[in-house]
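Side project, low priority. Logging it here so it doesn't get lost.
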Amino acid sequence: MSNNYIGYDFSIEPKELGSEILMAQLGDTAFESFLESEKGLSAFVKMDLWNETILHDIAILSNDEFKITYTFEEIEQVNWNEEWEKNFKPIDVDGKCHVRAPFHEITNAAYDIIIEPKMSFGTGHHETTHMMIQHLLEIDVANLKTLDMGCGTAILAILADKKGANPIDAIDIDNWCYLNAIENAERNNCKHITVYEGDAALLKGKKYDLIIANINRNILLNDMQTYADCLNLKGIILFSGFYNEDFSSIDESCTSKGLTFVKKLESNNWISLKYVN
């Protein structure tokens, strides 16, 4: 029996949403480990479980909304910690917030966040997460009841906790994200975060002073009324996960529900928006 792996390197556009969907679909096959890469996703399957048709039922590969190319090769047995460490570099956001892995040196930033993403997304490397951190750094969130929707690694909920938000609900539909969010919240000694597995249906009857939603455009538009209904008077809502060309549709949806536009951040055509109720 071989201990070697077949490693796939996927280049994905749009990267964030495509990577999430691809990883979920590959997870239903024999693929067992994943790493976020600069262009998309690396995925690994044991040589003994691999066959030439392993990608035939991966629906996203034939979806015209995504451009995905890939290469694959046989590789020696993988040291996953080594691979992960090689791909995860510490991040500095405006000199105020540092995001690092457990194996990086402790920093003297005002907000030092330790993240071990495993199979979840949201390390601060992606433009959308980076911009959401920038928004949060500018806001006084002390004692605000907060929602981190589509929380991924819970990086944004953790920053909100460190800035004094309380209580905080962190929600993600993906089981890996749910488990990873719990782990990261504990690692950062966050006492006010409660993590839930599910979607916007969990928000029925709940109210928040601050809503953070780093999710793709279609889900945001579909759930916008729910978010608006959950936001307290004078509450703040932060959005990201979409491109500059999506601004008009997001803005129209927000303003039609009584939300007022405040600010837009942009990075490499990704945008992040701030609204108030």
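Brief comment: The domain at 88-276 is CATH 3.40.50.150 (Rossmann fold).
Revisit when time allows.
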